[in-house]
Structures are given as C-alpha cells and as structure tokens.
Amino acid sequence: MDGFNLELSDHPESLEQLLVDCTDTLKYGVKTGHPRFFNQLSSGLDVVGLAGEWLTATANTNMFTYEIAPVFTVMETILLKKMYEIIGWGETEADGIFAPGGSISNLYGILVAHYKHYPEIKRQGMTALPCIVLFVSEQGHYSVKKAAAILGIGTDNVIEVKCDERGRMIPAELEKNILEAKRKGQTPFCVVATAGSTVFGAFDPLHAIADICETHRLWMHVDAAWGGGLLLSRNYSSKLSGIERANSVTWNPHKLMGVPLQCSAILIREKGLLEACNQMRAGYLFQPDKLYNVDFDTGDKTIQCGRHVDVFKLWLMWKAKGTCGFEAQIDRYMELAKYFYKVLKKKDNFKLVFDAEPEFTNVCFWYFPPRLKHIPKGCERDQELQKIAPKIKAQMIEEGTAMISYQPCGDKVNFFRMVFSNPATRRADVDYLIDEIERLGKDL
Ligand code: ABU
C-alpha cells in the first residue's frame, strides 16, 4: 500500500489528508461492487441500500429499545412479517430478529432448539442435559459446528449426514444416523437442513427432512442464508418447498437480495420462544413501567445488548424495487448461471463438476490447461490439477482483472466456484472471465 500511512498520529491530520486516506482505503481495497467480482456470495453495490446505510449511520442509534429506535423497530417488525408471509407462516405464530450474519442466525436457531427441548438449560447449563446431538449435511455450513462448540454441545456431537451426487442431504441417511445415535444412547434434538449450500448451491429435500423431524420430534432449522432470496422468485421458489414446515429459518438478505452487509434474519415459528430463551430483564434498559407498550422492546430477544440497525437499508430497497424488483434481479442471476453453464459445456478445456443445469447460481468447474489433457485421469493428473485454480486466481489478483473463489471438496481437487449475486454483472463479464481463465491458464 504504497504511500498509505495507516499508523495513528498523536495530533490531528488535515482534512485534505483524511480525504486522501479515504481514497486510498477504497483504492487498495477489493472492489466488491465490480461486475467481475465473483468471489463471494455477497457482492455488488445497490445505491439505494448504500443510501440506507448512510442514513442508518446518520441516525446512529441502537436497536435494543423502542424508546431509542421507534421507527427502525417498527420497520423491523414489518420486514419480519413480510418474511414470515413469504415463508408461509402466519404472523401470529412467528417471531424473529435481525442478527449479525448467517452464522449468528444459525447459532440462534440451534440455541432456541435446545432451549425448546430443555428449558432448564438456561439456568443449569449443560449439566441439565443428556448427550444431545444434531444433524447437518456434509455440505452444510461450518457455522453449525461453531454453534455446537459455542453452546457447549461439542463439535463431535454434530453428525454429518451423507449427500447425494449434487450435494443434497440424503433423507434415508439422516434417518439411519438418527436411529444409530439413539442406539448409542445419544439424544437427537435438531436437524439443520440447507437451502442453497455455500459451494454447490444445493437444496436439501425439505419435505422429506420435515417428515423425519416430525417422526422423531426433532427441531428443524433451515439454513437458507444463501438460498432464502429465491423465495421471492415465482419461477424458482419451489426449490425451497417444505421450508414452511421448519421450526426456524436463517435468511440473509445481504446475499442473493444484494442488501449491503450486514443483513441477516433468524425467523422462528413460535412466538415468545426467542425472548424466553434470552431474556435477562436488565432493569436499566427494559423498565416494565415505560410510557409505551414494552412488548415493542426487542433487546431481550437477542444474545447481544447493543444492536446495529440492519433493517433500514433492506426496507428502503424493498420500497424502491418492490418484491417484483427483487424477483427480476434474482431471475436474471439464474439466467446468467444457465448461460455460463452452457458456454462452459461447449469448451474443451473446461469441465463442469456437475454435468447438469445449475441448481442455483453456483456453477462449479475445472480449467484444464492443454498440457494436462494428455495425462490420463488419476492421481498424477489430480495432483497437477489441484495447483491450477490457485495459480490462475493468484495471477488474476496480481493483475486485478477479476476475482473468483476456488476450493477442494471431498474427493474433488481444487475447482472454481462461480456465483451470481451482483446486479452489475452482464453476459460480457461472464465471457470475459472465461477468456481470462484461458489466457492465464493455457501455459500452466
Ligand atoms: N457464509 C458463507 C459465505 C461464503 C462466501 O461468500 O463464499
């Protein structure tokens, strides 16, 4: 970061210097709004969302009480109601809160699940519990294990359920794992299904999972952090069919819906449970004898005290686009993913991880430099292929032309994961990326 002095000074610097610092901050940072930024599930820059974030910072308030954030609190209630409706829940049966990101929202889902089964845990901790276990697919998000570690359940008690060839949880395997856990004397309490897995964009079969949860009386949490936005598309919402049967749902508008970071909700299909689970009644914030109905105070539903206003930018974007605007944007990402898949399919040097139309906006693929085409399939070729994506990506970053993620997964060596969630991206950017990968990779 040539010439950018990040050290802090004892004395104030000039306004001119501060402006240079601001320019340098953006100059040396990654341009996540750039149409060729494909690295993350959250990307792009919505100008209305930006305005919302700006106004939020101007208000500089805290979500814990209605008395200090009356307007934002009502907006949160309205957004949550909209999200319950879209999921298929009645307003009176549901509850929720905006939380800092999908991992924390998943933590809430599991926290409430074990409180529901064992309310005594709030006072007595894990000593009150048998050996409880939960289930998530092997393609589920790592935050589920984090939550288990944080909550004292332990990562060993997160049982990974096998997936099919497209990365979807296999219900028969789930059932088998539950019965096996019971035989071992463990106590299953929760299943985390995934709607839009991080790497493959897979959707677990929610109805089949809900049936199993009902049979075994397990809490069903759906991690729809990535896939939740698809509920806004009449063309694609059926991929989440069964989500209405979940007990709790994570949904991140900062991913597919393009709301500036952060904006994530945990939605619970039981009123009062969040508050019962987390309430501490701090007298200095939650006085029962306030001038208004204190049911409006949301602060005791959360595991936080201070809470940032994440709702205004989403509310403002919804006003500006309407539900139809989100739908059109999301449908366009799905079309781009299909376009990308079709172009790659015709290219000799590219190989798709799944040779079928993309389930979501994730498209996973390898690039094969001509040199590797002569090495027969097997260990030696895999060893070489493993190095290709990191080398291409490193060069792309050096030159600043585009950004795309890669990873190994199971027995698959490093492959690229293309993902569409950036409203600025056009077909020309997709074509550019393919050409760029060939340019940087052909001599490797
Ligand atoms: N929470 C998953 C985000 C990962 C990604 O953006 O690639």
Whole-number radius of gyration? 23 Å
Largest sheet: 7 strands, mixed
Q: Label the overall shape.
A: globular
Query: Order of SSEs, N→C?
Result: HEHHEHHEHEHEHEEEHHEEHEEH
Strand order of the largest sheet: 2-8-7-6-5-3-4
Keywords: Decarboxylase, Lyase, Pyridoxal phosphate
Modified residues (N6-(pyridoxal phosphate)lysine): 255
GO molecular function: glutamate decarboxylase activity; pyridoxal phosphate binding
Family: Belongs to the group II decarboxylase family.
Molecular structure report:
The protein is an alpha/beta fold and 444 residues long. The protein contains twelve helices and twelve strands. The protein has helices at 15-28, 47-59, 70-87, 102-117, 121-124, 143-150, 171-183, 206-216, 273-278, 311-345, 379-399, 427-441, and strands at residues 37-38, 95-99, 132-137, 158-161, 187-194, 219-224, 248-251, 264-268, 350-352, 363-367, 403-409, 412-418. The strands form two sheets. Strands 2-8-7-6-5-3-4 form a seven-stranded mixed sheet, with helices on both faces. Strands 1-11-12-10-9 form a five-stranded mixed sheet. Strand 3 (132-137), helix 6 (143-150) and strand 4 form a beta-alpha-beta unit. The longest helix has 35 residues, at 311-345. The protein is globular. The mean pLDDT is 96. The structure holds gamma-amino-butanoic acid. Gamma-amino-butanoic acid binds at residues 40-42, 102, 198, 405. Belongs to the group II decarboxylase family. Homodimer. The modification N6-(pyridoxal phosphate)lysine is found at residue 255. It holds the Pfam family Pyridoxal_deC.
